[in-house]
Amino acid sequence: MKFMKKDKDKNSIKKKTVHLTKAVLESILVYAQYLHPREGILLLRGKVKKNFILVEEVVIPPQAVHGKNFSAFPMFMLPMDPTIIGAAHSHPSGVLKPSTEDLNNFYGKIMVIVGYPYTPQNVAVFDREGKILKHEVIP
After folding, report:
1. d(CA 123, CA 56)
2. Which secondary structure element, helix H or strand E, spans residue 4, and what is its range?
3. DSSP state for residue 28 in the 8-state scheme
4. Is the residue at 88 inside a domain?
5. Domains in the chain, number
6. Domain range holding 51?
7. Residue 29: which of 45, 44, 40 has the closest Cα?
């Protein structure tokens, strides 16, 4: 039984804390403000460790499209890059919850959603199942 529990914890990100650098959070928020009222989308580059996920950079996806109720990019245009650990996008409506469409197009291990008015208090991080993850901003 202990082996099964250890294996389950090892593969689960539910207990992990997501650490966003201050520069990453500011970049996501400024990008969302710039594109408002359209949705913006960014890729997240970082590292996945045993007890936490560290997001160190944002990357603008190639040929990204930004609309009033959607943002997208052609996944086949992305290079094979194991450091891309998720995506961030804005919700101009202010809703900090992933839609069914968001979950169906989930990319990587985490999804960061920033909602209007795009302040640090309007940020949420989710796993592939749409469950909220604890996050912290670090220098």
Report:
1. 16
2. helix 2-11
3. H
4. yes
5. 1
6. 24-133
7. 40
